[in-house]
Amino acid sequence: MKKLFKNLLPLLLIGSIPFSNLFYWTLNNTQRGVYDLTTDLDRFLPLIKVFIIPYMTLWFFLAFCFVYLCFKNRKVYYKIMLTLILCYVVAFITFYFFQTTVARPIVTGEDIFSKLILFTYSSDMPYNCFPSIHVITTYLAVKGINLTNANKRIKFPVNVVGFLIIISTQFIKQHVIMDIFFAIFLCEVFFTGITYVEEYYKIYNSKKSYNLLEKDIKQ
């Protein structure tokens, strides 16, 4: 039982994702002013209703990826989760001081895709866009899996589904291109920084151990 608890304890970090919703919903308004980062390219790209399917698979996707990663490579898992938390902190600070919005199109039709899009629109205000939380979590899930030695039967579908989730944010008009780019930029900056610090301490500790060993030999 103790061993089982020890193995399951790291999974609690995944709880930071739903917990972050407390901050997300609190900031999801225009009380502090709002900006629009829509470009001509965003206006040119059409609404493609079928992309609501990958968009709504996010929670299932994250659950699979992070649980798999936790048991497959604990070291990578911790680095990914730390990166995720740091990205969240920057995202929420950005939402507070630089709130953005997306102009949503008028969705008509009685098909299932239209209904799902309208449900998404009604349950999530068109704010807290820059950077995209959807993209941050998806990108880090894919990155984490790719850093393991998982076989292609795992990596290939994870990459395909992850890519579809990321571009779905654009094609159902939940986000603009700048939201996606900034999200990926944050992920790479923090993950690279964490890796750099990790390598620095490895070298520092190796030199320290070498100096102690050399001192003992001289004595």
UniProtKB/TrEMBL annotation:
InterPro entries: PAP2/HPO_sf. The keyword Transmembrane helix applies. GO terms for cellular component: membrane. Keywords: Membrane, Transmembrane, Transmembrane helix. The chain crosses the membrane at residues 7-27, 47-69, 76-98, 125-142, 154-172, 178-197. This is Inositol phosphorylceramide synthase.
